[in-house]
Amino acid sequence: MMRALDLAEAVEAGDLTPATVLELALEAIGEREKDIRAFASLDTDRARLAARTIPGTDGLFGLPVGFKDIIDTADYPTEHGSPIYKGHKPISDAPIVRMTEAAQGLRFGKTATTEFAFLNPAPTFNPHNPAHTPGGSSAGSAAGVAAGFFPLAFGTQTGGSVIRPASFCGVAAMKPSFRLIPIQGVKPFAPLLDTVGLFGARVVDVAFGLAAITGRDLRVDGGDFGKPVFGITRQPFAGEGSLEANAALEQAIKALEKAGITCREVTLAPVFGEAHAHHRAINNHEGAVSLTWEYDVHCERLSPILRDCIEHGRSVSLAEYDAARAVSNKARKATHPLFEEVDVLLTFSAPGLAPLRDSTGDATYNKLITLLGLPAVNVPGWRDSATNLPMGVQVVGAFGDDQRTLAAAHLLEQALAAHA
Amino acid sequence: MMRALDLAEAVEAGDLTPATVLELALEAIGEREKDIRAFASLDTDRARLAARTIPGTDGLFGLPVGFKDIIDTADYPTEHGSPIYKGHKPISDAPIVRMTEAAQGLRFGKTATTEFAFLNPAPTFNPHNPAHTPGGSSAGSAAGVAAGFFPLAFGTQTGGSVIRPASFCGVAAMKPSFRLIPIQGVKPFAPLLDTVGLFGARVVDVAFGLAAITGRDLRVDGGDFGKPVFGITRQPFAGEGSLEANAALEQAIKALEKAGITCREVTLAPVFGEAHAHHRAINNHEGAVSLTWEYDVHCERLSPILRDCIEHGRSVSLAEYDAARAVSNKARKATHPLFEEVDVLLTFSAPGLAPLRDSTGDATYNKLITLLGLPAVNVPGWRDSATNLPMGVQVVGAFGDDQRTLAAAHLLEQALAAHA
After folding, report:
1. Which of A87, B24, B88, B131 is the most exposed place for a label (fewest CB within 10 A)?
2. Scanning every residue of chain A, which has its alpha carbon at the shortest distance from the alpha carbon of B90?
C-alpha cells in the first residue's frame, strides 16, 4: 500500500517528487487494475500533466487522491454507478475536490461506486481475494488503497459505506463527525445520514490527509494524546458478530490491554437499539425522495434492490419518518453520558469477512454510528488465513471529537503492530 | 392575486379547469411581465400542453407553480441568477419539482433569483412600485404571486430570502421548519441554513399548497385551532425597526387583541442575540465553501458583493465557525422554554418598506429564525400610502410546529381583515 504520510515526508525531503509518486501508483495500476477495477474513470495523461505542475511543497505534497464517483467533477464524468448517468459531466467540481487540490492533492480519477451508493454491487474485486466483494458503496476507494493505486481516496457513508469496505479490504478509513467534510456537490441519498469519509493505508495516513484537506488539527503522528479508556460494545441489537469479527475484536482488546490501555465493557442504553432499528426508515424514505426523478423517469434502469428500497421508502409514512428522527435526536443526546463514562467505543466494523461478490455485505454495525453522526475509524489488523481476507475493528468517538478518535485508533494500530 | 385555495375549489367544482386557470395566469403575465420580470424562463406552449393533460381532480388541482431558478429542472434551464450558469440544463429535476407534479401542480417556469440566492439584485421590479426592490433572494416568486402570475411559487431562505420579499411584495409566505421540504436538487449556499419555502396570496393558500405537496397535515382553512398566545418581540439585538415596521406590528397586535387573542411582550434570552450575531460566520463560511468552483474558476463573473462575501467566508477561522455552530445549538435548545411561555412569536418581517432597486433589503429580522430552523410565516396587511408599498409581520413557531404556526398566522390574517 502507499502510505500517505511517508510519501509526503519523502517528497518534502526531496527523495521523491509528485511525478515519481504518481509513477509508483501508475505502476501498481498497470499491474492490477484490470483484475480489481477500482476506477470508474482515470486519465493518466492528465494526471501526469498535473503532477508536473503541483509544487509539492506543503499540505498533501502532490499525492494522488481518488474520488468516489458520486462526487462532482467538471473534467471527469460523474456517473453515480448508474447507466442513467453514463457519460454525465457536471458543470462544476464539488468543493471537496477543489479543497483537495488547494491542499496540493492530485485529482486522480474517479473510483467505482455501487449504484447511487446503495447496495447493488460495483464491478470492483476485493484485492485480497477476487471471489469476494470489496464491500460498498465506496468499493473503488477501499480496493484502490488496498491495491496501492493511490494513498488516499474519498468515499461516503449513509449506512456503512466507508467503514465496511475498509474492513473488507484491510485499510484504514474514517467517517468523520457529520458534516466535518463539506457534502456539497456529492449526489445525495439520505441527507440526514450522508457523510464524506477518507481512506488510507494506516490511521496516521488518514489523519494526515484529513488535516491537510480540512485545515483542522487532526494529525495524530508524533503527539502524545494520553491513554483513552475504550468502551467495548458488540451492539447486541445489531445481530451476532461472526467468529472472525469476534476474533478481530478480541485481538484488539488484548493488544490494547498489553499496551496498558483500559478496556471496559459498556452497556448501551435501550434508545440506541431503537435508533438502530429506525435507520432504515430514514435511509429509505430520504433515498426515495432524493431519487424521485430517477425512479419516475428511468425506473427500468434501476437495479431491483434499489427499486425495492425506493418503493419501501415511498411506503414509509411521514409519522414513521418523523418518529425515526425524534428517536435519533434522543439517541444523539444519550451519547453525552456515554462519552463521560469512556473516551471512545470499540466495536465491530462489520459482521464478518467480505462475502462473495453478489453482495456488498451488511452495514448493521455502522448504521447507528452514522445516524448519530459520530466519528468512526476502521482499524485493520486481523486476517483470516483460509481466505486471506482481512477484518477490521471500529473505533467510535464523541461528536466533534475527531482528533481524539483518530488518536485512539492510532494507539490501537500501534498496539496491534506491537502485540498482535 | 390568484388565490390557490379558491382556484382549487373552483376547479374541483367544475367552474374552472387547469387550462382556464392557466389562461388567467397568462393574461396577467401578458399584461405585466415586461414591467415586472418575475420569470427567469417560461415556456407558455409547454405550460398549455401540460394544463391539458393534468386531470385536476385532487391535490393542487392543476394550479401553476413557479420554481425559483436555483431549483434544478431537466427541461427549463437553471441559471442560479449567474452568467456562469447561462443556459445550464441540469440532467434531472429536483425532488420538490416532481413532488409538486405528483400533487397535480403545473410546472410553471422558473422565477428570477438574485445571484446564487445572495444579495446581488435580480432584474425583477416590485409590482407595487417599480422604483423599489421586490426583495431577495426569491425575487421572482414573491413578485409573481403579487402580480397574479401564479398562485404558488417556491423560494428558498438562507438569511431572509422568503419572508423579506413576501413582506416587500405584500404576499403570504412560509419558511417551514428546517428540512420540512426536501432540499435535494437545490443549489446549496449554506447547507446549515438553506430552507425551501412557499409563497401564496394568503396564509390559507400557502398552507393548502404545502399540505398538498408534502402530504402533511398543514391546512388551516376550516378547522378550529384554538386561540394561541402570541409573544411579541422586536428582536432588539437586530437593530431598530422603522416607523413603518412598527406601525405594521402595532396594527397586528391591535387586530389580534380586538379578536380576543392574548399578546404578551417576551424578552429573548441573551443566547438568541449571540446566535443572531453568529449567522454571518456560518452563512459566509459555508457560502464560500459551496461556491469554491465558481470563485476559483469564474471569479470575474461574480458580483462584487458576492466576492466580498466569499472572501470574508474564506477568512472565517474554523474555530469561529465551530463556535457559531455551538452557539446555534445552544439557542435551538433555548427555544423550548420560550415556546412553553407562548405559542408563537410575532415580530418584524423586515426592518421597513422595500428599499430602492439597488439593494434587496436587510434580513436582520430573519437570520436568527433561519438559524434556529423555526417555521416562520409572513402575514401581509399594512400599506404605506405614500409609496403604495406593503409591509408584513412575521409569525414564528416552535420547531416542527408548522401547522400551529400557520394557524396562528391565519388567525392574524383574519383579525387584520376584520379589524385593521
Report:
1. A87
2. A90
